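Lecture notes, part 5. Sequence design as translation. It can be helpful to think of inverse folding as translation between two languages: the language of shapes and the language of residues. The source text, in structure tokens, appears below.
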């Protein structure tokens, strides 16, 4: 979190998060991974090894670094093996998924847009490793947010579309607990498996923080390159959708437009039909940050199997309440458009003269509230460190 990093800096006057967001936005700084991403934990441990003169500490830090890097390498190798197996076995499938950096809308060439808030368009990309086909689930912020319910809804949509001969699917993602690694996603897997006609096993494996480069990252880079190369003006979220459809030479990206009829409230299942528990079946406390793999079996719905390391055996965490297993039919999450902030609406009105008047009504009719305007990329970190 950028604000958390700001708070950790010594010798400065602390301001509120709201004020910090306001100032940060005026700088128009984007939150983007560098082209050659480095691992914060690796960098920190290397620096500790360099700076300490204590041999015991140096050995301790080196061991921690070696262990961390081995775990990262092990999961990269595991992904390669899963991809290999699923290409030769039609009953299995391996995919990766990730949210792209927020796409500003409208995206115009005039310099005034540099200083103004824009509407965010979201893209969750699922990369099918069996055939290198990409599926981009896209929507804008007045349709839905981009938290766990929204990510889960996109993945649920994808799982319902897989070929009928697939019985086991393995998904890879980063370790962001706010979006990918949480009870909401597990509730979605329960609901999906209960009614899926052929799918029997869902595995979800989380790459080690700092070492999470996936096929979907390359896909997102292709989208950015396409926009810069064509200099396409983006007046409306659907302009982004169309640009993405034109991305990918061998396999053009497939876009799924996510309207509100496709977003479900898995969080409510956890408060009604399911139960979040703090201890596993052995009585040990359960922490999401430690999880590296989860598995859901259709023959034992309501129970999540999990690992904290690649060589461990699966342990169990039950989400069941007493009595019969729930129906697991999630409700729709939204009943109307999601309001944007009044400040953002005001900024969007200033951009109207620079886009086609065909789209003016779209922006004029966006509902508003008085909430603080927070960049979605600031609200969630990419990984758990």
């Amino acid at each position: 979190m950028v604000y958390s990093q700001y708070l950790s800096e010594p010798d400065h006057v602390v301001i509120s998060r709201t004020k910090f967001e306001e100032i940060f936005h005026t700088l128009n700084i984007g939150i983007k991974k560098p082209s050659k991403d480095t691992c914060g934990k690796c960098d920190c441990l290397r620096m500790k090894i360099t700076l300490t003169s204590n041999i015991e500490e140096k050995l301790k830090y080196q061991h921690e670094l070696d262990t961390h890097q081995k775990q990262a390498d092990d999961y990269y190798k595991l992904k390669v093996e899963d991809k290999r197996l699923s290409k030769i076995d039609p009953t299995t499938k391996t995919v990766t998924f990730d949210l792209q950096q927020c796409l500003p809308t409208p995206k115009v060439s005039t310099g005034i847009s540099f200083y103004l808030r824009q509407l965010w368009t979201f893209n969750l990309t699922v990369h099918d490793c069996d055939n290198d086909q990409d599926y981009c689930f896209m929507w804008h912020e007045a349709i839905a947010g981009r938290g766990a319910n929204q990510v889960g809804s996109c993945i649920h949509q994808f799982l319902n579309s897989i070929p009928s001969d697939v019985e086991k699917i393995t998904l890879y993602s980063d370790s962001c607990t706010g979006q990918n690694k949480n009870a909401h996603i597990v509730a979605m897997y329960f609901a999906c498996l209960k009614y899926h006609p052929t799918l029997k096993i869902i595995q979800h494996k989380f790459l080690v923080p700092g070492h999470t480069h996936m096929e979907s990252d390359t896909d997102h880079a292709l989208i950015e390159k396409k926009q810069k190369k064509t200099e396409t003006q983006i007046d409306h979220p659907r302009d982004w959708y169309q640009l993405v459809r034109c991305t990918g030479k061998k396999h053009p990206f497939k876009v799924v437009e996510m309207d509100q009829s496709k977003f479900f409230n898995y969080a409510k299942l956890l408060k009604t039909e399911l139960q979040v528990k703090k201890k596993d079946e052995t009585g040990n406390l359960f922490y999401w940050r430690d999880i590296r793999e989860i598995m859901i079996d259709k023959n034992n719905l309501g129970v999540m199997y999990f690992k904290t390391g690649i060589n461990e055996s699966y342990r169990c965490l039950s989400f069941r309440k007493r009595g019969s297993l729930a129906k697991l039919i999630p409700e729709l999450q939204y009943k109307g458009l999601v309001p944007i902030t009044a400040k953002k609406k005001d900024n969007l009105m200033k951009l109207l003269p620079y886009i086609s008047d065909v789209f003016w009504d779209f922006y004029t009719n966006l509902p508003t509230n008085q909430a603080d305007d927070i960049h979605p990329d600031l609200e969630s970190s990419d990984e758990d460190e």
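The translated text above is only one of many valid answers, since several sequences can fold into similar shapes. The chain has a mean pLDDT of 89.
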